[in-house]
Specification:
Pfam families: Sigma70_r2 (PF04542), Sigma70_r4_2 (PF08281). Belongs to the sigma-70 factor family. ECF subfamily. By secondary structure, the protein is mainly alpha-helical. The chain has eight helices and no strands. The N and C termini lie far apart (about 40 Å).
Length: about 180
Amino acid sequence: MMEKELRTLMLGALDGNAESYRYFLQQASSLLRAYFRRRLTAAPDEVEDLLQETLLAIHAQRHTYRRSEPLTPWLYAVARYKMIDCLRRRSRYEALNDPLDDEAEWLAATDEEAYESKKDLGRMLEVLPVHQRLPIQYTKLDGMSVAEAAAMTGMSVSAIKVGVHRGMKALAKIWKEQA
């Protein structure tokens, strides 16, 4: 479902339209379920539990949505925070069952390398024009489908595909020149 339609449903819901809110929750559920499935290696039950927690948070925090702002970034932010909470709970549980090893140095190096790589990628992406940068950001880094990226940007599906293809070629060229 496109940003505009979801936003219209949410605005109707905020104005007290129960049918609009019911339909909004159905559409948001589909969108968020796909979001979680792409990002988590979890059992379907765990994805559904996380989805329910997220829908409850959306319900409880719906008053924080600013009517003048796009809706999907707000939705994905709520979902992201809930997913992070889930991962933290999972890692705490797994940590209780892991033997204590001397991995602190290895983990610190990995975190530092990941941070530096992310900074490098960010600098390279900044060089790209918006019609290439956003499709790459949404589809390759944020894990959205091509259709979702098209809805977020207002671009066509084929423009997203072309933007990703040309942007990836440009990034490869930039990386090769820097190496």
